[in-house]
């Protein structure tokens, strides 16, 4: 069949000379070449299009992957940050809770300590009050009760050469937290040419105890009354062991009531206190007038109201009368509030 078709083709294309003309053949060949080139170019263009499309898809896929990786990384950072914040919140909450627990425990401990201290103070106050009540109207017992608190004062003024120019003596009472002695101001203040000058130091002695030295810088003065305080920086064990309760009289005793003056007068015992009793003869402002003898060294001691066994005041000066001298006692409350 193929051979028959070929023969027909050759017969058909023969010309008058027996062959196809050259120009027509060239035209046919050119047309075939053009068609072949166009087809090749089209195929090539299509292939390039497909390649670019694939490349774009690959690029798009890479961008999507990068975006996904970035989103996952961001989400991871956010999650880690959230976890860290939650961790910090938990730690802060625990710290706050622990701090609250500590503060609460400290508050409870402080309240317990304050309650215990108050209970001890109340107990000491009750015991002291019982002791006071037991000693009412019993003169020897009252004297024994107050004796440990009565101080003997020896104040010295020095010369420029370091020698003692003179001594001045008096009495005092241990008050406050057992670290203060109250006395008359004139015991440690002397007047030279109308100029007041404090002692350079004072020796404070209690019954059966060694003296304690108090310097001028530890003196305190009242601006209105003849009363002063000597501060003891380092109280002895003896002082610390004394009860802290010091009872001043709550009311003004009437005239005629009995009192006792305790101190170290120069004419009395030099080693122990001397007691002189008397009555309240009258009042003059913040001062009581008494018949009890108040000698030089007794000044600054203590006047006790026998009926209530309380501190009436601070014995101060004596006023000489026609028959006997009348002593003056500064009311204890007035003395305390004058500082």
TrEMBL record:
UniProt KW Nucleus keyword: no
Transmembrane helix is among the record's keywords: yes
A Pfam entry, by short name: Trypsin_2
Alphabetical UniProt keywords: Coiled coil, Membrane, Transmembrane, Transmembrane helix
Residues that span the membrane, as ranges: 20-43
Coiled coil feature spans: 46-130
Gene3D superfamilies per record: Trypsin-like serine proteases
Protein name, as recorded: Serine protease
């Amino acid at each position: 069949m193929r051979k028959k078709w070929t023969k027909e083709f050759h017969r058909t294309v023969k010309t008058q000379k027996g062959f196809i003309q050259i120009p027509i053949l060239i035209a046919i060949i050119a047309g075939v070449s053009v068609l072949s080139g166009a087809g090749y170019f089209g195929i090539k263009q299509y292939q390039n299009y497909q390649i670019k499309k694939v490349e774009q898809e690959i690029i798009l896929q890479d961008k999507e992957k990068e975006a996904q990786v970035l989103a996952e990384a961001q989400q991871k950072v956010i999650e880690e940050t959230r976890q860290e914040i939650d961790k910090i919140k938990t730690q802060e909450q625990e710290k706050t809770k622990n701090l609250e627990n500590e503060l609460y425990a400290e508050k409870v401990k402080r309240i317990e300590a304050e309650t215990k201290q108050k209970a001890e103070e109340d107990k000491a106050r009750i015991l002291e009050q019982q002791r006071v009540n037991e000693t009412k109207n019993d003169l020897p017992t009252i004297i024994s009760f107050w004796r440990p608190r009565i101080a003997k004062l020896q104040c010295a003024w020095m010369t420029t050469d370091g020698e003692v120019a003179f001594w001045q003596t008096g009495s005092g009472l241990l008050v406050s937290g057992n670290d203060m002695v109250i006395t008359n101001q004139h015991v440690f203040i002397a007047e030279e040419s109308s100029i007041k000058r404090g002692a350079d130091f004072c020796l404070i002695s209690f019954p059966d105890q060694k003296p304690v030295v108090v310097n001028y810088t530890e003196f305190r003065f009242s601006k209105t009354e003849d009363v002063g305080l000597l501060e003891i920086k380092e109280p002895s064990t003896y002082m610390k062991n004394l009860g802290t309760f010091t009872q001043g009289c709550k009311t003004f005793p009437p005239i005629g009531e009995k009192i006792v003056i305790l101190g170290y007068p120069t004419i009395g015992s030099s080693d122990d206190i001397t007691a002189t009793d008397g009555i309240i003869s009258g009042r003059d402002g913040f001062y009581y007038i008494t018949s009890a003898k108040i000698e030089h060294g007794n000044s600054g001691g203590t006047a006790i109201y026998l009926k209530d066994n309380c501190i009436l005041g601070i014995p101060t000066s004596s006023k000489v009368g026609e028959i006997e001298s009348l002593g003056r006692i500064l009311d204890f409350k007035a003395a305390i509030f004058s500082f």
